[in-house]
Inverse folding.
């Protein structure tokens, strides 16, 4: 690809390092920035720099935060007896958007995946166990993806907390609302049958 200037080429090279952005999109973004008022680019650069230098990971749950402890952990109205264990901070955003959960969270920072070289020691499992030792927590929700790695991680944590006499739950898995059985994969449909619930009128 021929670039109109070396500076544009350098900008495109940096933008393409972002996930899901190819050279054409990067060039379009670079040219868009060139057309904007200089203050726009300065504000964008400052926001990105602040994001990188000012963002913390919560000392308690490992969520993304602006301070050493995130706003969810300091919220006195949240249920301290329940912890929802998730893979990444983005999972917290998804769950919070449902407005159905008012407990606390714990971000593992990934899931156990031997093929990718991720072992339990690479995750925030030790800090989870330390939180559970307090005795205040009564239930943990294992909210992982429905894959072999997710199930492996859930099994590992379950074995680790077995002695703590906690209620251990996982997300319900089944047929999505509005879908047709004909097009539902066998694993999902099978789990829906096994985990069937009472029908209430």
């Amino acid at each position: 690809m021929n670039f109109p200037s070396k500076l544009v080429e350098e900008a495109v090279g940096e933008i393409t390092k972002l996930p899901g952005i190819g050279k054409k999109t990067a060039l379009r973004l670079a040219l868009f920035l060139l057309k904007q008022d200089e203050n726009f680019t300065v504000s964008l650069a400052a926001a990105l720099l602040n994001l990188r230098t000012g963002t913390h990971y919560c000392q308690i749950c490992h969520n993304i935060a602006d301070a050493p402890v995130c706003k969810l952990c300091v919220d006195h109205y949240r249920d301290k007896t329940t912890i929802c264990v998730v893979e990444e901070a983005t999972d917290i955003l998804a769950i919070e958007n449902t407005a159905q959960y008012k407990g606390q969270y714990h971000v593992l920072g990934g899931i156990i995946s031997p093929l990718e070289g991720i072992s339990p020691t690479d995750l925030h499992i030790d800090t989870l166990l330390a939180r559970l030792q307090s005795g205040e927590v009564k239930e943990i929700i294992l909210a992982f993806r429905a894959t072999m790695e997710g199930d492996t991680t859930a099994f590992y944590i379950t074995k680790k907390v077995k002695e703590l006499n906690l209620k251990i739950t996982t997300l319900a898995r089944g047929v999505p609302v509005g879908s047709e059985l004909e097009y539902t994969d066998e694993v999902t449909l099978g789990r829906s049958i096994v985990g069937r619930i009472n029908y209430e009128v």
